[in-house]
Amino acid sequence: MPNEPCVSVVGAGLAGCEAAWQLAQSGIPVKLFEMKPHKRTPAHCTDEYAELVCSNSFRSNRLQNAVGLLKEELRLLDSLVIGAADKTQVPAGGALAVDRVEFSRLITNAIKTHPKIRVFEGEVIELLEPPAIIATGPLTTDGLSASIEKLTGTCLHFFDAAAPIVYANSINMEAAFYASRYGRGSDYINCPMSQAEYSRFFNELILAQTVKLHSFEEQSVFEGCVPIELLAKRGEATLTFGPLKPAGLVDPRTGKRPFAAVQLRQDNQAATLYNIVGFQTNLTFAEQRRVFSLIPGLKDAEFARYGVMHRNTFLSSPQLLGWDYELKQKPGLYFAGQITGVEGYVESVASGLVASINLSKKLLKKPALDFTKKTAIGALAHYISGYAGSNFQPMNINYGIMEPLENMQKSKIQRTEEIAKRSLRVISDIKEN
Q1: Which sequence spans correspond to the domains of the chain?
Q2: pLDDT tens digits, residue range 254-308?
Q3: Per-residue DSSP letters for 84-144?
Q4: What is the CATH T-level fold of the domain 7-158+313-427, as seen in this structure?
Q5: Number of helices (H) and strands (E), helices first, in the chain?
Q6: What's the pTM value of the predicted model, to 2 decimals?
Q7: Pairing relation of β-strands 95-98 and 57-60?
Q8: One CATH from 3.40.50, 3.10.350, 3.30.1330, 2.40.30 for 165-307
Q9: Which helix (H) or strand (E) holds 376?
């Protein structure tokens, strides 16, 4: 059809791939623009699409947790990304974690072989004309960032960090044990620490050399990904109530709970790589080797990837975007992913899905689809578009931003269960209609 609409999607990350897939599945041709393999950001390591640059975990799979509900909503709506995550899952207790290499390969193949998607390789510097979705994520390049700032008048930045990954065969299992907190299986490797071992590690960590940041960068680190060395400087007990908390763990060598415990999560299906949970860092590579080797079990650890810090970019979305992720001042131009102010892998996927569905409806001259605050998908969209405070910051999905129940007298568990049931009923109705 000569007049058949074609949508441009910029960025083949999680949000961009989900948006391109949803559009293509609805029969709309897509031009997907991706700068790899010609150019990578400092945080990227491969040329595959939907690359997970931080953790390999999509977080909780339980409906008691809002991100578990968000994933279930996306499953009901045939999400490409969550489907790929389920297929490449690795053990992670109650969380959904993936083999990051196989995950990206699966999505890359699905995108490149879809008959309705054409891939164009190379960096996009200027904003494309509508209909288009900008899904360049938190690692948007300087050139495109400048174009966005020129159009919107604002573009904000904060800094994010990733944790290191070590080879499994370099972990000393005589000083570690398998277990998940609170008896939820045995999917994690735990490196227990005595009070003396922890004290030595802590003292070296807070004095270790970091990669130099500018002063404004030091004040703009996203709270959900604070480097472990900065977290430690908040107080000696901070880590033992955070990533090193030993709650629900028993060291089989002593039969007691350790003073602290470092957890490692399987990072690939072959179980040859493990991610040091909660150890996002801005330490120099040499200092990572030195300080992290003080952890029992990691004395001779070999690093497959060191932790890194990178710049993230996000819009002042409440002033710029509607609940459908459309730019108010330029109809037909949508944004998706972490550039909108949603925080997290699953949240980025959800934004790509909403943007693509509503762009397709615009092209078909149908009413926009509001998922409403009764769903996790809709609550995120309304948060980024309707935040009324003066300090808009990226947000993970949580039950607090969803529409509350009329009966608030029930227990927290009962409330979350009913909110989840209500949400899934709404999603099922949307899918049927």
Answers
A1: 7-158+313-427, 165-307
A2: 999 999 999 999 998 889 989 999 999 999 999 999 999 999 999 999 998 888 8
A3: HHHHTEE--TTEEEE-HHHHHHHHHHHHHT-TTEEEEES---SPPPSSEEE--GGG--HHH
A4: FAD/NAD(P)-binding domain (3.50.50)
A5: 13, 16
A6: 0.80
A7: antiparallel
A8: 2.40.30
A9: helix 376-386
